Amino acid sequence: MRIHGTPFYPLTHDLEEVQDHLSEFFLYEDYAYLVDQALSLLARIRDEVLPETPVSPLQDLTGINRLTVKTEEQGLTLETTKQSDAELEKLLFAIHRNSHIRLLVEARGYAIHSAIRSQIGGIDHLADDILVYLFSAVKASQTLMELGNWMHDVEADLFERQGAGTLEGAGERLADTRENYREVYSTLINELRSENLRGEIDTAIQSSIFLSEANNSRLLASVYPSLDEARRQKESFQLLQESKREASAKGGKKLLRGHEWAFHFLADSLSHLAYDECGVKRSKRSLVILLIEEILPKELEKQLKRPNPKGAPTIPAEKTLSGNGAKKPGWLKQLGYDELPETKDARSS
Question: Residue 260: is it exposed, middle or buried by C-beta count within 10 angstroms (0-12/13-18/19+)?
Fold first, then answer.
């Protein structure tokens, strides 16, 4: 397992260090609630499967120099006090790498422990609930990897766009801005995020799915010894289905903080704003210009007059509204602009 290239051992690394390193990312606060829950889960799982294992130090993950210069990855040795600890860590990695385990639970009705045993040999001596705890640890770790990789990539992309690595001193200047002029750096980061809002929403959804599966499977592991095989199969299937539904609902609502007001405003009023005074559907280009130059600025004034406006409201970028290719469809497409009829009258006919 790796967090943006650095080896990560969920059962033996110092989790406080992991949190410290992830908190160095500029966007950490936006997703701290997911990171904290994932780390707390890992800590509880450790207490169940490896209660006496000391933690190991973690290699530096997030030094700003990693964004300005390329460095070789240093090797990291897994230190454990007992052979059984290393065995469980190795098994955790095997579960993570095997894409069939989840499929067997969802598509073929396997209980989690049975799916793991069918794919990985040499584990007959391990109790069934231990396997479910490890499955939960994998999901909590995937939450951290998904978020850590995304937070790193956003800042790395910003440094690349600003010329770090190609223009002399560009990386150092941006690093100084990050450290001493955080509002300016925040503006640069948010402009970049707005260009790929769909990607951020997808990250939030996937992270929420992983975390929900981790929570539910840990709870299942705690009662596993008391369940018969039929109940284990049923609960295993249901926890994955419910996790997916819950996470999609929660994660899909995750928007760039300063743009939430604009997204919800458009969701409520697009069916009216899309048409001109004659009831003819505006072109996407003309609608985007109208929104950015007239409609959203007026609405923004209303937002700023409200007490404690949420997320320092700002106007989204043009590409956020119109999209940028098939992989970045934009808000108008997501909100159903393409499905609207060419004339307002046609909606009621």
Answer: middle
pTM check: above 0.85: no
Last residue of a domain, one of 222, 251, 280: 251
Task: Specify the number of domains making up the chain.
Answer: 2
What is the residue-averaged pLDDT of the chain?
78
In which domain, by residue range, is 340 found?
257-348
H-helix or E-strand containing 69? none
276-301 pLDDT tens trace: 988 899 999 999 999 988 998 888 88
Distance CA 90, CA 50 (A): 14
Position 59: which residue type?
Answer: Q
C-alpha to C-alpha distance for 81 and 341, rounded to whole angstroms: 68
Q: Are residues 236 and 110 in the same domain?
A: yes
Q: Are residues 56 and 93 in the same domain?
A: yes
Regions of the chain where pLDDT drops below 50: 53-54, 58, 60-83, 251-253, 309-310, 348-349
The rounded distance, in Å, linking the Cα atoms of 109 and 230 is: 10
Measured over the CA atoms of residue 187, residue 18, residue 8 and residue 101, the dihedral's sign is negative
Question: Are 187 and 83 found together in one domain?
Answer: yes
Q: Diameter of the chain by CA atoms?
A: 77
Residues 81 and 152 in one domain: yes
Per-residue confidence (pLDDT) for residue 60, from 0 to 100: 47
Instruction: Tokens for 186, please give them.
Output: 């925040």
Q: Which helix (H) or strand (E) holds 164?
A: none
